[in-house]
Structure formats: structure tokens, C-alpha cells
Records
---
Amino acid sequence: MATMAKKVEFATCPTCGQKLAVYPYVVVGSNVVCANPRCNTSVRVTGREPIRVTYIPIDQTRNPDHRPESYG
Ligand SMILES: [Zn+2]
């Protein structure tokens, strides 16, 4: 059972540094797209209160269990 956060938190986009508002209904495991239209990076919420996000490479969005050790 996910615990819903009680307030809006602000994550930082790992690509462009844009502040991203993460609303209370955004639970851990959700994906958030960067608010910067020129960036459009997807990040996954991995923790709340405090907020934590992790960058999701495009080719991983369909396979969340895949964990490349030495990609790129
Ligand atoms: Zn961004």
C-alpha cells in the first residue's frame, strides 16, 4: 500500500536542472515528464518526503526491470 505524500515537492531534472513539481497524488513508482518542453526527460519517482527521482533512459521505459550495468 503506497503512502500518499502530503505536500507538493520539487525534484530537479537530472538532464536540464529544471525544478519539477511533484504533486501529492504522484506515488512512488510513477513517471514524471520534465516540465521543460525542450528537455522532455522522463524520470521515475523512487521516493517521497523527501522526493527522490531517477532518470529513465528512453529504451528502458517499456522494461522497468531491466538494469543495464554498463550501457553507453
Ligand atoms: Zn529536464
Note: The chain has no helices and five strands.
---
Amino acid sequence: MKLDEQRKLQLEEIYNTLLNDEKVLKMKDIPMHFGSNCYEHSFKVAKLAMKRALRHKSVNLEALLIAAIFHDYYLYDWRKDKSKKKRHGIDHPSIAAKQAKRDFNISDQSIKMIESHMWPINFKDFPDSKEARILNLADKTVATIEFMSSTKQKKNHRDKTLEDISKLF
Ligand SMILES: [Fe+2]
Ligand SMILES: [Fe+2]
């Protein structure tokens, strides 16, 4: 998909605004897979989802970008909270969706993508749009890369490449 200048700027603005948003920055305090944190993971997923989405025609890039950034916006550490530990894999997409709606009033289309990002673990929430499937697979790819590189990574290592999304478009 070829984007015009205005569209590129619009996407960059969404990305960069959320990258520096006070509430989004709270995800830095939530540890993720193997030395990563929720913030870093989410923006990596967002970048990969955008990269893959650009290969398709007619994808709602804005809705996908926002869903990717908020897909793990659950804001608790399941390792410390025993009540959350057991059902985290199943429950966190709907918690993230609800909190993203509460804090940022994001669209229903993005909400549905967030809710289905853990399919097939969340078997009832099938990713029923192209955008939802791109998010679902981008999340699994990034989680796998994080797992594979965990031994090389320092704890909470900050990925400098997150800062620049402009090369993507
Ligand atoms: Fe997740
Ligand atoms: Fe994720």
C-alpha cells in the first residue's frame, strides 16, 4: 500500500504521541517476556504490524496501530498478583481493551482487535478482520523473538529503534 505524505505524518503523529504519553509510559513498569517490558513489547508489535500491513491493500492502519500499542494495556504484574496469574492469558485482552477504552476512548474496531490478539488461547475471540489477524501474528512473532533473544538481553534494556517509525512508511 502506497501512502501519501499526509497519511504518513498522521500515523507518525499517533505513534510518537502515544510513545510519550504519560499513561502509556506506565507499561514500562510491567515486566514482559524474558527481560522485556510491556511498553517495549507493545511498540515492537506496533512496528511489525505496520510493516506487514503495508504489504496489503485496504488495511485500516490507524485502527491497527492503536490496537497494537494498546493490545497489552492491562497494567498489572501477573507474576506478583496471584489472583491474576491463573487466568492472565485468557483475561488480559479484555482487561486491556476496557482500560484502553476508559483512558483513550479508542474505536470499537481497535477494541475488537485487542480482544482477539490471544486467539487461539482465547478460543471464542477469533480475529475476524485482516487487521486483527495481522496484530495476532505480529504479537506472536515478537513474543517468540523476545523468548529467543532473552539470554542476550539485559533486563529492561531500552530498544533505541522504537523512537523512529518514519522509516517504516
Ligand atoms: Fe497479550
Ligand atoms: Fe503482546
Note: The mean pLDDT is 90.
---
Amino acid sequence: MTTLLHIEASAQRAERSLTRLLGREFFATWQHLRPHDRVLRRDLAVDPVEPIDAEWIAAAFTPPDARTPAMVDRLRGSDAIVDAVSAADVIVMGVPMYNYGIPGALKCWIDQSARIGRTFSFDLARGDVPIEPILSGKTLVVLSACGEFGFEPGGMRAAMNALDPQLAACAHYWGVTRERIHTVRIEYQEFKDARFAASVEAGKAAAVALAERLARAASASMSRAA
Ligand SMILES: Cc1cc2nc3c(=O)[nH]c(=O)nc-3n(C[C@H](O)[C@H](O)[C@H](O)COP(=O)(O)O)c2cc1C
């Protein structure tokens, strides 16, 4: 059985959100091919993650056996996030572009997902690269949407794209290497023209094709292991 973790970061309701539309296409395809897989969901619009603060940082950087009951309590939400990431084989994120980056709601989730001793270790004996991921072997699917266009490498707004680099930089906390990040993006939403209509159709088709490819790969690796 494969476990998928679906994080929705759009502040929009389902009927208006393009990233939620891509998520529906992806999961309908996956569940058609592999109906018995487990899907964990967190919709940050209805179940938000709070920003980290001084108490949270103190709790996270205190060794587990030295934490006070209040510290243990403070980390419960983060523990649940890390448990879900640890359990997942495939992490699917619906990520609208807001002000050229990820939504703040997702940044809060990311900040609570990066935990010393659980998702990364830190050791200065490793010299200039003291952070090492603890998790491994996972796949990240980014289902994105933006109002403008040209954020891809070489595109006219490539230098303004703070969304993809942020996710790529943090992916190691979730056990994802860069080669295992797959991104589907709908563009031109603000233009409402034929380019937008074509981008919606292309995005839906890409989400379906990606789900088919990854679901088939999951089935193939199960039959190799059997
Ligand atoms: C608060 C806000 C900020 C946005 N900032 C950008 C932006 O910087 N660049 C861009 O191309 N589109 C931007 N957009 C457009 C969204 O990326 C676009 O509407 C997208 O479809 C949102 O995803 P959703 O439909 O799943 O909610 C912004 C939209 C909102 C609501």
C-alpha cells in the first residue's frame, strides 16, 4: 500500500480554486488505478497551522527527554505534521502563487514540518553542511497555479519565481530529492483569455498523466518487492 499526503494551501473555496481542481484530477486518477492506497489530507484553509514562536522554537530545540509538559504540548501539532510526512510515500501539495511565493499558510506548515531529530539532524562535525535529512525515498507533487506566466527557467518572470526554489530548498526535510519533485502549473489565470483556457486543459491533462505515471510506478515497485 502506498500512502499519499495531500496538503491544500489555496485560500479559495473548491469551486474557484485551480490548484484544488488539479488535486481532484490527480486523486481521481490515482484512486481509479490504486483504490486501496491510503490518503491523508490537510486543508490549510479550514485547518490552519499556526506560525512558530519563541515557545515553539525553545520546545523543538530542547532534547525530548528534557522537555517540560508544556513543551511537549506545544509540539503536538508539529508532531502530527511530522508523523504524516513520515508515513507518506507521495506528498501532493496544492500551491497557489501568492506575491511570487508560496502562501503564508503553507510556510507555517513547512516551519512546523522541519524538526531537529525528526526530519533533520545537525552536526558541525559535518563541516559546512551540518544539516542532514533523516527521511528519504519520497516523492513531491506540486500542483500550482498563477495569474501571470513565464516563471519557468528562461521565462520572462523566472527571476521573480520564489515559489519553486522555496519548495526545492525545503524538500529534503520531507525526504524528497530534487529529481523526485514533479510540478504541474496552470498559468494566465489573471488574463482570462484563450491562453488561460489552454493552460487549464494542459494542466488537467498533466495532472492526470503524472498520477498515472506515479501510480503505475508504485504498482511496479510493489510487484518487484513481492
Ligand atoms: C493574494 C494573491 C496574491 C497573488 N499573487 C500572485 C503573484 O504574485 N503572481 C501571480 O502570477 N499570480 C498571483 N496571484 C494569482 C493566483 O496565483 C491565481 O489566482 C491562482 O489561480 C491561485 O490559485 P487557486 O486558484 O488554487 O487559489 C495571486 C492571487 C492572490 C489571491
Note: The chain has a mean pLDDT of 97.
---
Amino acid sequence: MDPETRDPGTYHSPSRILGSIIYRNSIRFGPRQIRVESAMLRAYNSGTRAAPYESLVVADIGDVNVNVYDLKDTCKRIREAYRKILATGCIPLTMGGDHTIAYPILQAVAEKHGPVGLVHVDAHADTSDVVLGEKIGHGTPFRRCVEEGLLDCQRVVQIGLRGSGYSADSYEWSREQGFRVVPVEECWFKSLTPLMSEVRAQMGSGPVYLSFDIDALDPGFAPGTGTPEIAGLTPIQGVEIIRGCRGLNLVGCDLVEVSPPYDPTGNTALTGANLLFEMLCVLPKMKYY
Ligand SMILES: [Mn+2]
């Protein structure tokens, strides 16, 4: 970053550098790589006996044409694209892209459904007010969503949060809004199936959006991401969370922050593709054999 343009008030410690979008990039190549790795996916879910392609009309409708020179215009383009998608009655499963995209998607989702519940799986709360002086970014989407009344805050859960922060209690703001915060320490060494039965009770029958940041998983499993944090969730726990969303009134899901250049094995994108398949397999009207 050009020292001339940096804001000294928001850029004074190594952790601020590490937490910002200037650390790692190439998240824009995530969807392309997830599509490549999704060639491995078959039609049925052997674990749950779900038959998504017998249950729903499923299509890859391609990318939203974003403006890489202008994040605000990008958000506008995403919001308008999702308005049209949602107007068809489609339940969008989105591949990211960085977590910024959850904000304009949720704007369109809330316009249709009203304030929604949120199952947010992530290493980070993504509730910063500003990052490097900017209101729009991948560290701020859920703060913006709350400000605009897009979330039903009593029906928000954040799972897997961890890592160094900007203050001793990084999740205080979340709790003040009424979110349930499940730091990763509460997830270590255990099945998350019991947690998810509590989450289903919290979400009730209202509309729910599922936002899954691949960095929720341990970087040993998913190193190809922008802001890795050690001691994360296992892929098994990720699957338990998604399967635990079965029965919820899901109105949209995303899988974000896959950065292919940081994982030359392709395994992060493969994991992302499988998690998206698991999401598909818990959508309303799913047929299970
Ligand atoms: Mn995130």
C-alpha cells in the first residue's frame, strides 16, 4: 500500500495489516477453481441419501460481472443481479469471491424475505466498522447488514471464530446485537451435531441464510484462503454444521474466500465444492431415499 494513502488511525499494527485485504489476494479465482474441482461430484449424497438433482432444478448460472476497479459499484451490481435471481424463486448458492459479497446478496435477500436468520461459519466475525478507513470490505459485511436491518439479530449464530483480534473481546459487538457467538474453543474435540440442534431451535421456521467462509476450516485442511487462522474446524465439523441445517427454511447460501494460488493441490477448492454440494442437499423440498 502507498504510504501516502494510508490512514494512520487504522493502520498501525501488524495485526491490522494481517487482517486486511492487502495481505493475500486472488480470491476472485475461487469460483473458477471450485467449478474445476466440482467435476469430482456425483449425483447422490451417500451419507444422507439426498437426491438433489431429482428434487430441484439445479443450474450454474455463471458469474456476476463485477467491477474490479470499484467495490461499491461491484456491490451494486451484485445486489441487482440477486434481485433478478431471487425474483425467479431460485434459492441461490453462491461461490465467492471474498466475504464482501454477503452484504449485497443479503440486501437482495432481505428485500424479498424481510430480515433473515444467519448461520455464519467463519474464523472471523466480519463485523468491523471500518477497515483501512473503508466501510465496504470483507471484514465489515455483517456490521453493514445489521445497520440496514437485514438480519433478525436474535436468529444469528457465528461459529468457529478465533485468532488474534483488534481488542481483547473481538466478539463483544456481535453479542451486543443479540448474536450467538460460538468461538472455536467451544468446538474443539467434539461433534457439532448437538450444537446444530440448538441452532435449529434458535432459527425456528423463519427464513435463514447460510454463509460459510472456507477459513472457518483449519488451514491444514483448507490453506487456500485469504486470512488463515490456526486451530480451526475440521471438514467433518463443517459437514455436521451444514447437515445440521436440514429442516431450516434456507433462502440462500454462500461459500466464500477460496484463494486457489495458496493451495496448489486444489484441495481447498475441492472441499469448497463438496461443502456446496452438502448445502444443495439440505435445501427445502429435498428428496431423501
Ligand atoms: Mn469471512
Note: The domain at 8-280 is CATH 3.40.800.10 (Arginase; Chain A).
